[in-house]
Amino acid sequence: MENLFKRILVPVDFSDGSMNSFNLAEFFSKDRGSKIILVHIISEPLITDPIHSSEYFTPKIIADLKEELEEKIQEEYVEKSNLKNDIETVVLRGYPPTEIISLIEKTNADLVVMGTHGRKGLAHLLLGSVTEKVIRASKVPVITMRVDTVIAPESYNIKKILVPYDFSQLSEKSLHLAERIANFYHSEIDLVFVNQPITYYPYYLSDYISEEDVLEKIDEEIKEKLEALANREESKNIKVDTFVKRGEPYEKIIELSEELASNLIVMGTHGRSGIAHVVIGSVAERVIRSSHIPVMTVRF
User: Fold this and answer.
1) Residue 162's CB: how many other CB atoms inside 10 A?
2) Is it the case that residue 207 has pLDDT exceeding 60?
């Protein structure tokens, strides 16, 4: 059977997290003829002395460094794999997010697999994340996992897929992708809507209707809509269960993934950046930083 993903791009930096990303890419490509493209980016240094910078980064030095890194990729990844003939290696110099996005287009990659550091708060804001910049710009699905997530390609399987759903076009796109994966790997899908209580419910209330009554009514209506999705034509060969939770969306998604022993979360991300991203935040990025299983994101 032809694979879902034909060209899988894996940025590597020789860390344990990169090895796990490579292992997950092997899972998606094994025995199905997919090509894995391993790329290492030599980050452009912050030049503090532009007058003498050419002395430090001559073409000869860069060429020697690229050759050394190519050899290291072969030793650390390719030679340890059973898919040697299906692996390409690339070493580039530049700004990592930009080079990765450019390489996706140049290689016609249809999936990116990479790690994330899981930082939060001030450290996250100050240091940023190559992974999250790629997620916001990539036109193809991106699978991420924390550095402490261990993937063994010979034992990992996708038996249960958790799909957060909010009835937007973006969540419909992520559900469609999850259905393709589920059909391919004979997986089950768990659909979840998280009802986040908001402050303007009181105007619906009266002496006869409590806030709990309103929430229960919303839960019932959402459950009916999710059940309709579970029974649609696209899911006819997939076992689909539905859940309605209340609370902070990313927390409930993580809790449910652990409760159900999910193997993969598939969800959308809005792709905002700059001030809009900082102010509004992103449920997807919070899930990515908190989840101990791989998270596949798709951008609308």
Assistant:
1) 27
2) no
Q: Is 166 exposed, middle or buried (0-12, 13-18, 19+ CB in 10 A)?
A: middle
pLDDT band at residue 276, thresholds of 50, 70 and 90? very low
Residues 4 and 124 in one domain: yes
Task: Give the contacts of 58 (CB within 8 A, at least 6 positions apart).
Answer: none
Q: Give the span between the Cα atoms of 209 and 187, in whole angstroms.
A: 41
DSSP string of 20-50?
A: HHHHHHHHHHTTTT-EEEEEEEEEPP--S-T
Last residue of a domain, one of 156, 173, 203: 156
Shared-domain flag, residues 133 and 233: no
Compute the average pLDDT of residues 58-79: 91
Q: Answer yes or no: do 166 and 279 share one domain.
A: yes
pLDDT tens for each residue of 183-206: 999 999 999 999 887 654 555 555
Axis-axis angle for helices 130-137, 283-290 (nearest 10): 140
- pLDDT surpassing 80 at residue 73: yes
Q: Residue 228: CB partners within 8 Å, gap ≥ 6? A: none
* Least trusted range by pLDDT, from 37-41, 61-65, 70-74: 61-65
Q: What pLDDT does 107 receive?
A: 96
Q: What CA–CA distance (Å, rounded) separates 86 from 35? A: 5
Q: Domain check: are 265 and 127 in the same one?
A: no
Amino acid at 246: R
3-state SS, 241-282, equals EEEEEECCHHHHHHHHHHHCCCCEEEEEECCCCHHHHHHHCC
